[in-house]
Design the sequence.
């Protein structure tokens, strides 16, 4: 299936694979798969990650090889090209429990902590929060929330 990828994509995806493969150039830790996919513009749902893992690592070794990675990326291109802005809006609306179009800075920090599967530390979260301009009451609207999360993505 990797032959479905354009040579540019194969080259880019291979580069990403090697970037995230840590010490070994032969295999990618499954734990790095979501981050690697995001870095090439794919925003997989957990069900897609599970599907890839089940197909490429049935023995449970915790790693994926480059050929399996390329095959998986070619077969998941259509389903995983997500618009991050849509995802961000859905996240904002989910946490905007009173539907006033605002989230408090405290809520934004919590969202970042809950969605930061990349392991952001408190300082990194604070740096992201500072990028959003809050109003005088310490709230952020959807547009400011998008600025924060587009930097995160």
Sequence:
């Amino acid at each position: 299936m990797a032959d479905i990828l354009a040579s540019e994509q194969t080259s880019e995806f291979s580069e990403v694979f090697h970037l995230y493969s840590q010490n070994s150039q032969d295999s990618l830790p499954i734990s790095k798969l979501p981050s690697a996919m995001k870095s090439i513009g794919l925003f997989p749902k957990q069900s897609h990650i599970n599907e890839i893992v089940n197909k490429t690592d049935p023995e449970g070794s915790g790693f994926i090889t480059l050929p399996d990675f390329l095959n998986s990326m070619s077969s998941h291109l259509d389903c995983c090209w997500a618009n991050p802005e849509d995802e961000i809006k859905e996240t904002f609306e989910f946490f905007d429990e009173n539907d006033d179009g605002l989230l408090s800075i405290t809520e934004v920090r919590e969202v970042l902590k809950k969605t930061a599967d990349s392991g952001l530390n408190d300082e990194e979260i604070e740096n992201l929060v500072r990028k959003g301009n809050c109003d005088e009451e310490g709230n952020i609207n959807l547009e400011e929330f998008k600025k924060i999360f587009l930097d995160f993505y």
Notes: The mean pLDDT is 80. The domain at 2-80 is CATH 1.10.238.10 (Recoverin; domain 1). The longest helix spans residues 66-80.
